[in-house]
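User: Quick one: structure for sequence A, then sequence B.

Assistant: Sequence A:
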Amino acid sequence: MQLLIWVDYKNIKIKMINTTLANNINDAFIDICKALYYHGKKVSPRGMETLELQNYLVEFDANADPTITIPERKLNIKYLSAELSWYKSGDPSISFISKYSTFWEKLTDNNNTVNSNYGKLALVDKYNGSNQYEWCMQQLLKDPNTRQAIINYNQPQHKYPTNKDFVCTIAQQFIVNEGKLDTIVFMRSNDLIYGFSYDVPWFNYLHKKLAKHTNLPLGSYRHFATSMHVYKRHFKMIEKVATKY
């Protein structure tokens, strides 16, 4: 992990961002817990106390299983499977997913729908005849060196005063590097425990799906969060992880 180091090279100042380079998501999760526990700053957006590190980049092999399995952060696999199915359906209604978690009931609008069904945004909504996933596939097949294979999640339509579900993910880009398909996910805000833990499997799913459709080997999974944080109720959890491993 690199922490905010200024390097002056021939009068050019380079600021290193917070970086975790890991073999898999378990190692990445442990490293982020340590970074937040030892170096995180307390901030309180919307009055909720958090430990935060800004500009955090995580990278690991995309071939690795994206499911966290360490005992201190055991995922609800039933919910994770349901969330992936819900995303794949592209249905913004919470009728299905709320059976597995009441969390989504706090984010609904008047139509019992939410904005953060990532499958709707990536696989269902169409622009000029194609959904965003199809756009990425078309661009990569046409030009393997393209920088235009991007899925935009947070969109202008989400910017209204009464929005309770302002999408956390800005975008996901796919790019070929040394003959392999890499992806990078850009997050405006990422809660390590409920956000990062359950979001990565979806982005990894799309990454693997696109690699198959473009006949490219998988490369690296990268995940950049402007704000990587944990809420106060999880301070003890990250302390346990940070001091154990």
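Sequence B:
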Amino acid sequence: MAISRTKTNDATETVNEVTDTMTDSTKTAMKEATAKVETMVAETQKTVTEQMEKLSKGFEGMTAFSQENLDALTKSSEIATKAAEGISSEVSAYTKKAFEDTVAAAQGIASAKTVTELFEKQTAFAQSAFEGYVAQTTKMHEIMVAATKEITAPIGARMTAATEKMKSFAL
């Protein structure tokens, strides 16, 4: 029986050694797998954090850009309002002057003593009124062109900024 106990003890020791080896290998494999998973999770978390920061900065940039666009529209509206006031004042001043000139011409025509004098005064008034109208039309054109340039300048600047932003997105 001594032999069989030795064989049993040897078999038990072998099983224990194999079990210990398997346990150690399993523990080592689990530690390695855990380390790899922890590394993968850490890298994923870092990547997600970086992407969220980029996305947040992108939204901040879009918000700032939109605010600048709104500011440009507001500025253009203010300029347009001032230009409209200036044009209105100019039209009122011209209308008043034209009315006064017409009343004065009518009085002059009414005081004519001869038909020749009447035609001369009427012709002088017509020529003066036409020249005044042409001068006023030219002046109004210049005012409107200048106002248009001023009104569109802030919006044009925003369009340029938008174009530059789009160029920066290009390859």
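The mean pLDDT is 89. The two ends are 86 Å apart (CA to CA).

User: Thanks, that's what I needed.
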